[in-house]
Every structure is written in structure tokens, then in C-alpha cells.
Amino acid sequence: MKTQHTLIALAAIAALLQGCAFTPAQLDVKATAATQVAGPLKDVQPVKFRPTQLEDARQDMARIGWKKNGFGQNTADITTSEPVDRIVESTIDKAILDSRHSVGEDGIIQIIGTVDRFWFDTDVNFWTVTFIGEVACTLDFIDTQTKQSIYKNTYAGSYSVDKAGGLEKTWTEVMAKALDKLIEDVVLDEDMADALRTHTAAKGSTATP
Q1: For residue 12, what pLDDT is reported?
Q2: DSSP secondary structure code for residue 46 in this structure
């Protein structure tokens, strides 16, 4: 009887987890607007950046995750309503703006790079489900006048939470919090802040928007 109850509970969790397993899901993912992280980037003299430009370099660009049935088999795509590269571009621009810098077409620094990972996954346990969001990108900070790289690094954000179950709303929140963690990784990069500080000092007053 105990085994039967356990199987019923697992079936209920699977149903709560995936809803209609064969219907694709499309998530409206973006970083949390109210979330702001203070870090070394905020201490750099204000700089105007051009809008971030990234290429989607993920191994699987068709989806950000899979719906699964009660046996753990992939059944339908989980995608985003906006292209993944644009989502991450907007997230990096938010990190810049939240750190009291500005973004515009006449910026003196261009951020280019790649989106390396943007993935949602689940891990079904006996009584709960772990929802996991992971985002990673490589950013190259370029002087728009000299076309030389000022600084280059890889950044990542991940978030996980255990719940009794959850559908699209939960999945969207998990990916949004992963983007928030990505912002945190960017603004807390002391080496990047030092590189920008050195660059703006060399540029003098022309670095101020």
C-alpha cells in the first residue's frame, strides 16, 4: 500500500510539473525589473556603452528545455517568446544601466559576445521537484574608436528551487532569477571594473557621456 501511495504521489507531481506534456510551452523571460545589484561597476566613472550585441552560440538553439512525461522522456519544446540572444542583450544592458552608466548608439564602448547557455531543467524527487535555470555568456568590451578589446570574460547565472510542483509561471520565474544572477556576476566583476577604470582614465573627459 505504501508503494502504491508513493507511485500515486509521483504521478501527481509529474502532472503538476508538466501539465499537457505534448503541448509546447513558450515563456516570456526577462530579468526582474526591481532587482538591482550594487558592485564595483557602479564605482567606475560613468561611461556610455553601445547596446549589447550577442550571437546565439548554444549547442541547442531550437529550445531552452524540454517538457517531459511521467517516465522522464522528452515530449515537447520549451521556448521563449523573444529570441534568447535579445533576452541576454537586454539583461546585460540592464546591468550597465543599474550601475549608473548609460546606453546609446553613440557609446564609446561596445559589448559583443556570445550566449553560451540558456537552459531550463527539472529534477523530480519523491515529494518535490527541483526547478533549475542556467544562463551563461561571453562578453568582450571593445573601444569603439580603436576597435581594440578592453576586457573579455565569461559570466554565468544559475538558480534552483524545490517545490511540490509548478507550470509555466514557475518555469518563467526560475529563468528570470537565473538572469538576475547573471547580472550579479557582471556587476561584481572587479577585474572588469578595473579595466574600464583604466580605460576611462586614459580617455580622459571624452569617456563621460
Answers
A1: 47
A2: P
